[in-house]
Amino acid sequence: MKIIIAGAYAIGTHLAKLLSRNNQDIVLIDEDEERLANISSDYDLMTMNASPSSLKTLKNAGAEDADLYIAVTPDENMNMNSCMIAKALGTKKTVAKINNNEFMEPKLGDFFENLGISSLIYPENLAARDIVNGLKMSWVRQRWDVHDGALIMLGIKLRETCEILNEPLKDLCKPESPYHIVAIKRGDDTIIPRGDDELKMYDLAYFMTTRNYIPYIRKIVGKEHYVDVKNVMIMGGGNTGVRTAQTMPEYMNAKVIDNDESRCERINELVDTDRVMVINGDGRDLPLLIEEGIRTTQAFVALTGNAETNILACLTAKRLGVRKTVAMVENFDYVRMAESLDIGTIVNKKALAASHIYQMMLDTEVSNIRFLMTANADVAEFVAHQDSKVTRKKVYELGLPQGATIGGLVRHGEGHLVSGGTQIEAGDIVVVFCHNINMNKIEKFFK
């Protein structure tokens, strides 16, 4: 697959790294030679020091026969214009990153398609959706709904209250069990578990289950004492903070704190003021946080543009008794540090945007894919066809590559967990968890 990426910024470089694992034909374009130098020596791709808005550049990059053109520079006008040029030259699909939420109106989809822009990405929307999903379940670090919730994957930090520590998984995850452990993040290591593996305190365990068993999972991991989130404090009134406040369910109330007075006035025009209070102040000001009721707040969300500020603010909120904390950490170098400090959920909108685009490179029918930055792993939904290799044998006989496991499947709209003796059928939507392997190796089982 031939893929052209315009913009060697965080999204473009992260995406190039993800795609280069799968031996794709990648060209990365940027006007800054230094940005290109930071990535080209470490990954299998071609770089071009040129303007993505140039017709000559796109021709030289091979846009005439490219499968996918991805424009993720900070300039949305350049992104959209270069997509139009690439499409006119013959590129099959184009993707543009934008900064204006108004363009995401569903009724505008055909309009942009006719212009030559196949898909638009607004990272703030993706981040807000991720944050709100996490707020709905205060005891979960990460949640991923498969096929509209037919299956649920939950990333849960295990504490001393967990009932299933130090027992072999073969005794816990039997064919009739209502959950499977598909991965374990332990320190810096990601484990695709086998029957003899055990869960340990402070593991981040990934459970695959169905919606009706979520209360059961909550009980066995010892999280029943976590209160549901009703009051949320958001530090930072940027686009991500506003989108989070706008998309929260009706039973939640929020206080948005921002130190820019004119920005606060603008936020008041954008949110439902019956449920969202906007406060002009410094979210790092401890007396202000106490005065505004942080001790009775169930969730604290730090969304400023400064990763260090967000991390420290979440640590402070934790000390003040807030159970659920979320920090936006845009600097990839800080993600591991944030994890080691156990600050709660980490959101990186650039990684979310890259994951969203990532699925477009797969040529099998893949309806959803997500890169789990914390676990350095992919979770993907594949569709099994009539003659797919995956339908010819039971799961334990398939010979899946090391680092891959099947977590569940959706059949006729109903979610089912998978064991070694499961027979996958044509039409099944199969959820595969992959760590540190080429996704193309999994694709072959579904062709």
TrEMBL record:
SUPFAM superfamilies reported in the protein's UniProt record: NAD(P)-binding Rossmann-fold domains, TrkA C-terminal domain-like
| RCK C-terminal domain mapped to chain residues | 141-223, 366-447
Name of the protein described by the UniProt record? Trk system potassium uptake protein TrkA
The UniProt entry, under InterPro entries, shows:
K_uptake_TrkA, NAD(P)-bd_dom_sf, RCK_C, RCK_C_sf, RCK_N, Trk_Ktr_HKT_K-transport
Q: Locate the RCK N-terminal domain: which residues?
A: 1-121, 229-347
Alphabetized, the UniProt keywords read: Ion transport, NAD, Potassium, Potassium transport, Transport
Q: Can you name the source organism?
A: Xylanibacter caecicola
| Database matches in PANTHER family | POTASSIUM CHANNEL PROTEIN 2-RELATED-RELATED, TRK SYSTEM POTASSIUM UPTAKE PROTEIN TRKA
